[in-house]
Amino acid sequence: MAPIGLARGRSSFSQRHPSPHVDSVLFLTTIAIREKDSSVVITTRKPSAIHTVKKSQHSSTIRPRSGSRRVSGIVSRYASKDYRPDLRKFALARASAVLASTKEPKPEHEKKTRGKKALKA
Known about the structure:
This protein is α+β, with helices and mostly antiparallel strands. Helices cover about 25% and strands about 15% of the residues.
């Protein structure tokens, strides 16, 4: 298998070009997954309007308290449509990382005293 080169772009997961065995003409759409106002935003490009900038983008927002199963299902559905199949797992990894970053950390529990210190108290 040929080496994979570096690619530029916000939507390029792991900065990889497709391998020569993957026909890149078929996979014109790109997908960007980011966080906005504690929700996950998935932005895709329409292959029919690839040369225009704003009109070619379609964004969908997943509400903040959605679970990981819902987010991964939506991302895998977007990634399976006209998207590079070798980068689906990177898209799912980015979506789960964005979802994890939006959650507030749990408060730390107080440590229970044990042994002699517990008997003294």
